[in-house]
Structures are given as C-alpha cells and as structure tokens.
Design brief:
heterodimer; A: 839 residues; alpha+beta; 5-stranded antiparallel beta sheet; 20 helices; 31 strands; 43% helix; rod-shaped; B: 126 residues; alpha/beta; Transcription Regulator spoIIAA; 5-stranded mixed beta sheet; 5 strands; 41% helix
Chain lengths: 839, 126
C-alpha cells in the first residue's frame, strides 16, 4: 500500500505536469504546417494548370499545322495534276480543238478534282479551250492575278478565292504555265475548284477543329461564303508575319476577346489556317483538372484541419478532465483536513471517490473502534449501471479487503456474495485503509459493471486516496482523543449540581464547542457562602483545547476558594488574576446576590455585561461595568463593586460570547437577540434555558455557558452561618434588617428582633467562644403568626467574670423582654438561643 | 459589607453654663462601646462639670452599649453630674427594659436634661 501510495503521489505530480504543459503553440504550429502544405500544393497545381494551358495551345497549333499541311499537300497534288495536263500533247500542241476534246474529260460529271473545270489561256489572255460545255469565256482574262502571276514567274500558282462570274460560286483557281513543243511558254492552264460549304460541323469540332478559318493570300476568308475579310485586320497582319504559331488570350478574328488563336501557313496555296477558339473551350480540360485538384487539396486540407481540431478538442477535454481531477483532489484533501471525526473522513472519501468514478459504486468501510464491525458507507454513482448494493454486500467487500490488507483488483466477472445476497459485477478495485501505525482501519473499494474499467494509474490514484486518508485518520484520532479528554476534563471541572438555594432558582447550560473548533475554556459556577451570599460567575479562558480547559479548572478552583473568603465580587476577581497561567487571558463576571436584602453586587474583568430582566416591567437592563480589562491583560484598570437592589420578579443572565457572537451577527445584535429571547421566556430558568440556547445558537461552533438566576423574593426561611467575630455581627444586623423589611415585618418588631439577635450573637461570641474562632449558625423563619430566630454556637460555655455576668445579664434581659420568648439552652456541645416573636 | 468602620460618632459641646453636651450619633454596639466608655471616663477626670449625654442621634443600642454608657456615667459621677437624654422611642424602650433610670438620671428631652444637669452641678458643688 505504501508503495502504491508513493506511486499515487507521483501520479499527482504527473497530473500537475500534464496540466501545465503548453498546448497553444503546438496547435498553432500544426495549423501553420497545414497552411504551408496547402499553399505549396495549390502552387504546384497552378503550375500544372499553366502547363496544361500551354499543352492545349500547342495542341491547337499542331492541329492548325496539320490542317495547313493537308492543304499544302492537296494543292501541291492539284498543281502536279495540272502540270501533267499541261504536259499533255493536246496542250503542247496549242490546238484548241484538241485541247477542248481532252478537257472534256475534266468537265462536269467527270471524276476530275477540278470541280470548276480547266481551261487554257493563250499569252494574250484569251481563253481558247475549256472543259466548260458552254465554251470559253469571252473577253480577256489577262487581268486575272493567276494569269499575271504565272506569266510573270513562269511558275505554277494558286490564286486567291474568287467568286465566279457566272455561277457566283467561290472558286480557287490554280494555274500553271504551258509550253510548246520547243519548251516556250505558250499560255496558262488554269483549273478551278469549287469551294464546298465548309461550315464547322460536330465532327470537325470533335476533332478539335472548331473555329477553323482559312485565310487566303489576299486576306479573304475562304471558309466564308462571301469571302469576307476578318474584322480583326491587325490579327491578320500579325499572323502574316510568322509561318505558324499560337496566340493565347488574344482578340479573335471577329475581334472578340478571350480567344486562343493557332495558325499555320500552307506554302503552296498561300493559305493561313486559323483555329480561333474561346479560351474557355481550349483550356477547359486544364481548368477541369485544376478544379479537380484544387478540390482534392482543399478536401485534404479540410480533413487535416478536422483532424487537428479533433486532436485539440481531445487535448482540451483531457486537460479539463485533468484540471477537474486536480480540483477534485484539492477539494478532497481540503475536506479531509476539515474532517472532524471518523464519520466525516468516511463521508469525504466516499464523496471524493464517487465524483471520481461516477459510473461506479463506492464502498468505504471504516473501523471506529476495533471490537465493533466496520461502519460502511455505500454510494452509487449517478452513471452506475450496477444495481444498488445492499449493506451486507458492502460490508462483505469492505471486510474482505480490510482482512486481505492489500490492494485488490478483480478485473472481470466479480462475484459479490454475502450471506443473503448474490450479485455479479464487471470489475472491483479496492485498497485497504490503515492508521499511521499500520493497524487496519478499513477499506475503500469501487465496483463497476464494466470489466477492466480501471487502468494502472487509476489504481494508483486509489492508493493515493488511501494514503491521504491514512494521514487524516491519524489527525482525526488525535483530535477526537484530545477533544474527548478536554470535554471530560471540562465537564469534570464544571459543577455537577448547582446549590439548592432558598429564594434563588438557578439553571445553567454548558455546551462544549464543536469538534473542529475544539473544546473551549468557558466556565460557570455558583457558590453559596455560609453567610447566605451567593456568588455567581461565568467566565471564558481564551484559547481552545486541553490547555484552556486546565486554565479554566484552575481559575474555577481558585474562584471557589476566594468566593468563600470574600464577600465582594471585585475582591474575588482581583485575587483570581494570579491564578491565571502566564500568557493566558480570561474574561469573567462575578455577581453576588444577597437573598436577605435583594442586593446585587457585581464586577467584571472584560466580560460581556450580565442582563437583568425585570419581569414586572418587561424590561432588560445590561449591567454597566467598571472598566476592568480581562484577567492577564495589562494594564488591568480599576475594578470595583457595582451595586443595585434588584426589583421583584427579576432574573439575571450571565453568559459567554458563544451564545451571542456568531459568524454573521455582531455581539450587540446577539445581545439584543438574547434580550428579546429572555423577555419572551416567561418560564422558570430550568424550563426555559435549553430552549433559549437552542433558539440563539442552534449549532454554534464555539462553546457556550449560560447561567440564568431567578432572583425571587426573600424566602420565609433563611439559614446563615457567620464567623464568631463581633465585627461580622454589625453586617448581620443590616442584612437581617433587610430580610425583615422584605418580609414586611413592622419597624418596632424589626428593631426588637435585630437587637435580640445581636444580643444572642454577642452572647455566643463572648461566652461560647471567648477568644476562639468558630461559627455561629443562625436560622431565620417567618410564618404568618410567628417570627423565629435561632442562634447556635458550638462553643463551650464558660462562666464569665462577675461584671461581665452583670453586663451580659442585660443582654439576656433584653432578649427576654424584646421577644415573646427567648429560650437559652446551654449544652456541652454549644448554646442554642431560640427567639420567638408572635406577630 | 465590611463592618470595620465605626458607625458611632461622638461630639462634645460646652454651653454657656459650663454644661458639657456629649452627642452620640449612629450605632452604639459592642464595637463602638469601648470607645465611648473611654471618652466618658476621660471627661470624668475633669471635675466640676455637668455632663448631658445626647442620645437622640442613636439609631441602635445594645447591651454592651448600655454597659459602656453605665460605666462611663459611673466614672463621671464621681466628679460631675451626668444626665442621659433625648432617647428615641426605640432607645427609650431599651433604657426602660434595663431600667437604666435606676442607675443613671434619664431625661426625655435635652432641655430637661440641661436644667437637671445645672441643678445637679450646683447641688454637688455647693
């Protein structure tokens, strides 16, 4: 387990590293890389597109060249044919009749390629023979360019297209010189070809000859019916400058822009074959390829971006999961630190594991004390597909792992069986929990419906949880032990029973602070002095835990001692100062009530003001206090007794700040609330005190002491004990006077009774004790018809000197005469004087 | 609530006829009695005086106080006349119970006491 625990710690480190690793630049780099690749690919594709365009243009040019060559070959053949005719004997003979007969072979209906027929023109330009059945053309043909050309060059020639005079058909006229038998030029043999309608059809278009135009030497478009010249003469001029070529993205023959023009010249007819096509058509393939590739590239890029986005999303999710895990861990350790007891630890661990594994069921068993069975908590995660585990099954799981005392990983087909229950689960992982000293403390387990649910590092995480719990258990145990000890100590130091006092109804409430703030140093006490005075005190030693409880105990013991010694509350408080350990501080208030006179004296050392409730008037008075700082505070300031006579139906409340001071409530507001609560609580202290504390501090963390004292009317019976000292008798007279006044005895009776009491006491002191110390017990009793005063001493009666006897005689005389009855009984154990007055 | 302080005050005044008036105010009890006894005895040491003890200011007197008064009066009486006067109702009742008048001359008012004192004084001196 310890080994796993350390693994868990390193897992924690790994978590921290994982969280802190930068991811932004990585993502940016990936995006940039994709961008670069896309740009490069697009550039490459563009280059390819350029090449494709180039190829297409060259292709067009090649087609133009091919066409031009075809034309060249054709016209060369035709010229050879014509030359062969010229060399025929009929032509050499210059006999028009022979020629006419010969030429008839080339007339209409023949298979001659000279569709417009042939004819011989003599040197003067007259047509002498023709294949035309209509006979030779009248008039001179000497102005014809082919005639002039042949006569001038004595070479064959292909003329420009012309429109026939008669048929109005387009003709191409070829001419060769004819020679006589001696080789002299005798004339010109001309042959004509009728140009067929050469409109582009689907077939030629498919062959790439869309937009085919042929321009003859004269710049006429032979491919057009009217032999119209192209509108774009600049282009024609340009074409004339080279033998062949291709012009990309230029103006076409008709002047429209965005054309590709390929051209080639055929030497023999002097034709320029032009393929004039729109750029969009020529480059359609290249464009298509470009589009296709661009789409491909963009698709690839999109895919890569998607991939990167997915990776980033995954990374973010992982990061968030890691952060959540770290946050959970922090929350876990914090909650664990605040855990006050075993139950808290168990709940914290259960909660933490359940939020770590929402698809699992968490079982945590902890051992509050060894002989008892484990106390088990089960929590089914919100996404768990496992049925609710019964307590027996949970107990069985926890006990087994605890007994095994080693981490458990059951990765498939887990059978969970208990006495009455059988279940199956996919996987189960558990770790034992131990105290720091190695003793088993219980176990934690997570059960899943899926097999192989946890990977190695998850199991290590379980170990880390267990490790933290180990530390917390030690702390909690120490804490619990210390708290228990402090509570025990404090309770042993606080009074078990309040004294039963005539005329004073008391109730006290003490509540130790909650465990995590630990027990405090609040105390209260009530001391009834033998002389009938009641010292009431509430105090608060600053600090918490055993130290505070010990200091409180010391102060309280000292208080009890001084309370018996001193009647004055300020005197008691002054003397307590020296009993407070060095460097400690305490506040306290002491109120001293005389039930005989209904006088209240009080003093405080930095404590909250006691509240005096006047039930008759329905008012609350905070008792103002002299400015004396807390015990242990320097400079302490002056303390003195404050005094007041309490009204009838009065109640006094002494309390510590735990009752009135809360997180969100100021002390003043708290005191106001206490005042209101006291006013509402009409019942006697014993009946109302718990409700008062409950309503003011339902779950206060600080400790609380509250002392409620009902200051009732003077009781009909009072017992007092005073020291056998004449000096105390004077005060006794005053107090008994007060009691008699309270009891509404008339003035004469009061004076008589007090004097008689005085004599009895003096008698006891002078004759009973003489110079010895001792006490005198006095009982006062008032019934409707009878006032009875009893004075008793434990002194041994000694015969006084004679003069004293005479003097004392007056005292006895006074007692006898003042009261209805004065009975003096001297016994070895002491003297008892009973004075009675009928009313 | 301390009883240490003496609540009895004793004042002396001599009138034109040479009568010494001793006025007692407060409580004459066992604590204050020795003091009174001593003071009255001192007066007794000065012959020829008439002394009136004014007890009108006494709120309380007990047997010891009475004893001290009697003892002091006896000391004075050797040389001077002494009269106790002005007792309140309660003190007078005590005087009555112990029959103080049988030992010391007791007058109800100061005026009577003064007169009586002067008479006694002249009688004793003649």
């Amino acid at each position: 387990m310890r080994r796993i625990g350390r693994a868990g710690t390193s897992f924690e480190d790994a978590l921290a590293r994982k969280v802190s690793r930068p991811r932004g630049p990585f993502l940016l780099g990936a995006l940039l890389a994709v961008l670069v690749v896309v740009v490069a690919a697009l550039a490459f594709v563009w280059r390819q597109y350029d090449d494709g365009k180039d190829d297409a243009a060259q292709d067009l040019r090649a087609r133009a060249v091919l066409a031009a060559t075809v034309f060249d070959t054709y016209f060369t053949g035709q010229l050879q044919t014509l030359s062969a005719i010229a060399a025929s004997p009929a032509v050499v003979s210059k006999d028009p009749d022979q020629m006419r007969r010969y030429f008839a072979h080339f007339g209409p209906g023949s298979s001659s390629s000279f569709t417009a027929g042939v004819g011989w023109i003599d040197l003067r330009g007259r047509q002498r023979a023709t294949s035309d059945p209509n006979g030779p053309v009248r008039g001179s043909l000497a102005d014809r360019s082919y005639f002039k050309g042949v006569i001038a060059t004595k070479k064959s020639i292909v003329g420009e297209a012309i429109v026939a005079q008669r048929s109005k058909r387009r003709l191409i006229v070829m001419a060769v010189p004819t020679r006589d038998a001696r080789g002299r030029v005798s004339g010109v043999l001309a042959g004509g070809i009728i140009l067929q309608q050469a409109a582009n059809d689907a077939r030629s278009n498919n062959l790439g000859y869309a937009g085919l135009q042929v321009i003859d030497r004269a710049g006429q478009q032979v491919t057009r019916r009217d032999l119209e010249r192209p509108a774009n003469s600049a282009l024609v001029a340009r074409l004339a400058r080279s033998k062949e070529g291709v012009l990309v993205d230029t103006a076409g023959l008709d002047g429209s822009s965005g054309r590709v023009v390929a051209f080639a010249r055929s030497a023999s007819p002097g034709w320029t074959t032009v393929l004039d096509q729109p750029t969009s058509v020529v480059f359609a393939d290249a464009r298509q390829a470009l589009t296709r590739e661009a789409i491909l590239i963009c698709g690839a890029a999109a895919f890569m971006l998607l991939l990167i986005g997915w990776a980033a999303w995954r990374a973010r999710r992982e990061l968030r999961a890691s952060r959540e895990q770290v946050a959970r861990w922090a929350q876990f350790t914090r909650s664990l630190h605040d855990a006050a007891d075993m139950t808290d630890v168990r709940e914290v661990l259960t909660g933490a594991l359940s939020s770590e594994y929402p698809d699992g069921t968490v079982v945590v068993g902890l051992d509050p004390s060894v002989p008892e069975p484990l106390s088990v908590a089960v929590r089914r995660g919100p996404h768990s597909r496992l049925a609710e585990l019964s307590d027996d099954v949970a107990m069985s799981i926890a006990s087994r792992i605890t007994d095994a005392d080693a981490p458990v990983a059951l990765e498939r087909d887990v059978e969970l069986d208990a006495d009455r229950d059988r279940r199956r689960a996919g996987s189960l992982y558990g770790v034992p929990l131990r105290y720091r000293d190695g003793r088993p403390a219980g176990a934690a387990a997570v059960v899943f419906s899926r097999a192989n649910r946890l990977a190695g590092h998850d199991v290590a995480l379980l170990g880390a949880y267990a490790d933290q719990v180990e530390q917390a258990l030690g702390r909690v145990r120490r804490h619990e032990e210390e708290h228990d000890a402090a509570v025990l100590l404090q309770q042993s130091l606080l009074p078990n029973l309040l004294p039963d006092l005539a005329g004073v109804a008391l109730a006290a409430h003490y509540r130790a602070g909650a465990l995590n703030t630990r027990v405090g140093g609040d105390w209260y006490d009530v001391v009834r002095r033998p002389d009938g005075l009641v010292h009431l005190t509430v105090g608060d030693v600053a600090g918490r835990g055993i130290d505070a409880a010990i200091s409180m105990g010391q102060l309280r013991n000292a208080f009890r001692a001084y309370a018996l010694e001193h009647a004055s509350p300020s005197a008691v408080i002054e003397r307590l100062e020296r009993h407070l350990p060095e460097d400690e501080m305490a506040t306290m208030v002491c109120a001293t009530y005389d039930v005989c006179t209904r006088e209240l004296a009080y003093a405080s050392a930095g404590h909250l003001p006691p509240l005096l409730l006047d039930r008759e008037r329905g008012s609350i008075t905070p008792l103002s206090l002299s400015h004396r700082g807390p015990l242990g505070w320097r400079p302490s300031g002056v303390i003195r007794d404050e005094r007041l006579r309490v009204p009838h139906e009065a109640m006094l409340a002494l309390y510590t700040d735990g009752l009135v001071e809360h997180r969100n409530v100021s002390i003043d507001d708290g005191i106001d609330r206490l005042s209101e609560t006291l006013l509402d609580a009409a019942a006697a202290p014993q009946e109302s005190i718990d409700a008062i504390v409950q309503s003011l501090a339902p779950n206060a963390e600080d400790d609380i002491a509250l002392l409620l004292v009902d200051l009732g009317d003077a009781p009909e019976d009072i017992e007092l004990e005073i020291p056998a000292d004449l000096r105390t008798v004077r005060e006794l007279r005053r107090r008994v006077h007060g009691w008699l006044t309270q009891r509404q005895i008339d003035d004469d009776m009061q004076r008589a009774a007090v004097l008689a009491l005085n004599e009895a006491c003096a008698n006891a002191i002078e004759h009973g004790y003489r110079e010895q110390t001792g006490t005198i017990s006095i009982q006062l009793s008032h019934r409707s018809e009878m006032l009875r005063i009893s004075v008793e001493d434990q002194g041994t009666w000694r015969q006084p000197p004679e003069d004293a006897t005479r003097n004392r005689g007056r005292g006895i005389l006074l007692m006898q005469k003042l009261m209805t009855k004065a009975d003096i009984r001297r016994q070895p154990s002491g003297t008892r004087v009973v004075l009675e007055q009928n009313l | 609530m301390s009883a240490d302080s003496s609540p009895l005050s004793i004042s002396f005044a001599r009138d034109g006829d040479g009568v010494l008036v001793v006025a007692l105010t407060g409580e004459l009890d066992f604590l204050s009695a020795p003091d009174l006894c001593a003071r009255l005895s001192d007066i007794g040491g000065e012959p020829g005086n008439a002394v009136v003890v004014d007890v009108s200011g006494l709120t309380f007197i007990d047997s010891t106080g009475l004893n001290s008064l009697v003892a002091g009066a006896q000391a004075i009486r050797a040389t001077s006349a002494i009269v106790v006067a002005g007792a309140s109702k309660h003190v007078a009742r005590v005087f009555e119970i112990v029959r103080l008048a049988e030992t010391i001359r007791v007058e109800s008012t100061i005026e009577d006491a003064m007169r009586a004192a002067r008479e006694d004084s002249s009688a004793s001196s003649s």
